[in-house]
């Protein structure tokens, strides 16, 4: 299971990243939807990640080309492409982390919920296969609407008897990436130093950045905080409109997805204090799923962290988002159980 990579370039890179051991576990990662707008750059970024030893690229079409292309990059992982439902099992077998950016993206004028009718079925099918072929994998759900696709996945896993709430994640990292970028611009601080937790869900007002907890502290006026909050909430729409019918965020999402998958791998490998925001099963509020900071470990979620102190504006935002988030969660649960 363990392969010595210490003397290789990947090994040196790993040691620089804080690994004390000379051996790095073999880790298989699958990207489902790997030939898509997110899938392709995400496949590239996962190929660059030295924690990955096997990279399985799956889509309903075009994966052989993507896999051949990415496989020529001289990094640690072995790449294989899988195409069509009959190869899904092979793609998933033995996976430690499965990343799902499969499904249709928005066009201008659509909400993420408008994607439900198509993406709910796609996610349901893929999660049934995960339950069968790699029930212990950590699942990183990117497909929208995340506020519903995560509950759908949970219901599929419950029905299959494989549900482990520590292993299912809605990827909300792009909200954090945006909040950091926008805050750094407004506060005129180095973006590399910025941290901003983003809680709630992943659609419109359910995205709640907690700028009162942003570091470095900048004491921005209330109007700036409100503008930053709105821009973070509308970040996806900003890209959808700029792309004018050619889809939604792909490159920034691939970056965010790669950060989150890397955090999952680090947690699995026993790196301490790996904390990221994610939409997970939660007791932080009365809602069954909620995004907040989570500590990642050898079994996935080790601890769901609380909200911390909120400003009055954030408290209001929290109460306003609950009905929409609740409805999206219930819609997902209902879909999974009736179809
Ligand atoms: N969580 C987040 O922050 C974000 C989520 N998204 C979501 O990610 C999803 C994908 O977006 P894009 O990559 O831009 O779309 P895309 O249309 O470019 O790519 C989607 C890929 O999924 C594939 N696919 C469809 N059905 C499949 C199935 N049953 N199994 C495997 N693959 C399948 C398609 O063939 C296509 O290659 C969308 O739902 C989008 O809304 C996008 C940006 C951010
Ligand atoms: O806005 C969209 O449809 C895609 C997405 O989730 C994002 O960019 O945050």
From TrEMBL:
Its EC number is 1.1.1.37. CDD domains: MDH_glyoxysomal_mitochondrial. Residues 172-335 form the Lactate/malate dehydrogenase C-terminal domain. Residues 28-170 form the Lactate/malate dehydrogenase N-terminal domain. GO terms for cellular component: mitochondrial matrix. Keywords: Mitochondrion, NAD, Oxidoreductase, Transit peptide, Tricarboxylic acid cycle. It is found in: Mitochondrion matrix. InterPro entries: L-lactate/malate_DH, Lactate/malate_DH_C, Lactate/malate_DH_N, Lactate_DH/Glyco_Ohase_4_C, Malate_DH_AS, Malate_DH_type1, NAD(P)-bd_dom_sf. NAD(+) binds at residues 33-39, 59, 119, 142-144, 253. One of its GO terms (molecular function) is L-malate dehydrogenase (NAD+) activity. The active site is at 202 (proton acceptor). Substrate binds at residues 106, 112, 144, 178. It catalyses: (S)-malate + NAD(+) = oxaloacetate + NADH + H(+). It is an enzyme of class 1 (oxidoreductase). GO terms for biological process: malate metabolic process; tricarboxylic acid cycle. Belongs to the LDH/MDH superfamily. MDH type 1 family. Homodimer. This is Malate dehydrogenase. It comes from Hibiscus syriacus. The lineage of its organism: Eukaryota, Viridiplantae, Streptophyta, Embryophyta, Tracheophyta.
